[in-house]
Every structure is written in structure tokens, then in C-alpha cells.
Amino acid sequence: MDKKAVRTVAGIAVGCVVLYWALQNLKAVGDFVGTAFALVWPFVLGGAIAFILGVPMRAIEKKLPKKLKRTRRAAALCLTLLAVAGVLAFVLLLLIPQVSATANNIGKLLPGFWAEAQKLLASLLEKYPVLQEWLADAAQMDWQKLLNTVVEWAKNGGIALVGNAANAATGILAGMMNFFISMVFAIYVLMQKEKLGRQIRMLLYAWVPTQRADRVLEVASLTNKTFSSFLSGQCLEACILGCMFAVGMLVCRMPYVTLVSVLIAVTALIPIFGAFIGCFVGAFLILVQNPIQAFWFVVLFLCIQQIEGNLVYPKVVGNSVGLPSIWVLVAVTVGGSTMGVAGMLVMIPLASVLYSLLRTATRDKLREKGVEKQKYTGEPPQLKKKV
Q: For labelling, which of 122, 259, 303, 378 has a CA lying 20 to 30 Å from the CA of 95?
């Protein structure tokens, strides 16, 4: 065998030995992977923050005068951070007074709501005597024994509760430290992204075959473009949905227009299903004040959600990432089922990248095989009837 074959066989043998050892020491492998992930997590998070901030930063940097030269990048970064902080401050300043007023209003309405609930319960007890029997059985429970059990559990779990509180405080401090490191790393990446990109390309072309390096960079460029378009489209779609709810609630003369509209716009950043969180909160707030209006709010939400899910979202987000509407829905469903909210956010642009790569590869394969276009664009061939 030549040297290349010997290296291949040796690599397979070493891989088999390592795989066998890993299967025999799963706990050690798990601990190693967890430790490694904890070490790189701040930098992964920093890269994600840099990517998100890089989308508006590029737009701002293009608008700045070229005379700034060296300070242009720093000015764009500062303006981006100020813009993001301004948006967050605007949302908080808009929501906090509304939340405070809503809490006071709910506190005033709760006594009347409780009285109505008691009347409703009394009427149900009159109509359904079985409920009275069930409540009588519940009243005969040994409440003292139940209370003693709760007290005993509190005594035994007191030390564990203190330990959990200490672990929670440590976790919060560690999270704040990781976020600080991530922000510093993101700022460095944004300030020197051209230099970092040049270094990565140098490593690729130095250690990877040229053709394969070209392919890696093509896929990376497509991924960057797709994810950037997805972020822009998702923010635009959230603003459109919030405006639709504001107009609809104003027309129907519903309360808490500002609070519910902003809340739905923020939660709509989670693809397709995020607005349901805002619907639940809005329906609860309106329910305390007017149950009939709460019912009509749910009806309004379902109508707007149908328009948004079938017309606005596939057009705005689907077109921005180049993914057909049906695959947008599939990507959101699969991503939410496997990885939750993060899966919903990542799966749409990822599916768009895979869709583009598969489409290009399929067309190249058809061209290579010499398949005529009529065969896959026209009517499918019919089965010949046997004579």
C-alpha cells in the first residue's frame, strides 16, 4: 500500500479505538464535553451577539460619510449600541407605566370579579347538587395531617432550599460574567471583522484543498446572507403584526391597546407561535375588566393570526430568506418540536440554506445526467395500458 492508504487505515484504526474508549467511558466524555462547552459558551454567545448587531451596523456604516475613515467603524458601532439600547428603553418606558396602571386597575376590579365568581359558584351549586357532595367530602379531609406533612417537608427541605438559593445566586453571577465577556468579544469581532475574516480564509486555503475551501466559503456567504435577511424580515413582520393589533383593537374599542400591541410585537419575534403568548396575556387582562370583550379579543386575534400566518409571514419572512411558504411552516414546526424557541429562530434560515444548496445540487445533477426540462416540468408520464 502507498502512504496515503496506510494513513487512511491508521486513521480508521485510531478512530475505532477512540470510539470504543468513549463508549466505555460515557460519563468522562460527558463531563469533558460539558466543561468544554462551558468554556466556549461565552464566545459562542458573543459571536451570536456580533452577528445580530452586525445587521443594523452595516446599514448604519453605509450611511456615514467616508471622510471619517478610521473612526467610521467605531461611530457605527456606538450608534448601533445606542439604537438597540434606545429601542429597549422605549419599550420598557412604554410598558412599565401601562403595567403599573393595569395592575392598579385589576386590583380595583378584583373584588367585583370575585363577587361575581361567588354568585356563579352559588348558582352552580344550586343546579348541580353533586358539587355540594364533592365539597362536603373535601371539607372532611384531615387538614391537620396535611398541614403536619407540609411542615415536615419544609423542615427537611430547608437546607436544600438554602443550597438551591446559593446555587441560583452563583448561577446568576456566572451568567452576568459570561454576558459581559460575550459583549466584549462581540465588540472586538465587530471592530475587526475584516481582519478575522482574512485570517480564517488564510487558514482554510493553507490547510484545506482549494476547491473544498472555495465551497466552504460559498456556503458561509450564503448562510450569512440568509440569516441576515431572516433577522430583518422577522423584525419587520413583528412591527406589522403589532400595528395590525393596534388598529384592530382601536376599531373594536378594546382596553390596553398600547400594552397588548407592544407585547404581541415583542413576542412575535418568535416565529409564528410567539404571538400566542401576547394573546394569552391580553385575553387575561381584558377578561378581568370585560369578559365579553375578552371573547371578541380572542376572535380578533384568530382572524389577524390567520392573515399574518398565511399572507404576511410567508411573504415577508419567506421571501426574505428565499424559502417557500410551506417549508417555512415545516421548519418552524420541526424546530419548535426539537429545540423549542431557539429551534424556531434557527431552523428557518438553516432550512433556507439547505433548500438553496439542495436546489443547486439537484439542478447540477439533472444537467449532468442530461435530463430534459420537459420531463420534470410537464405532465408526468402515463402508464401504458396492456393490450
A: 303
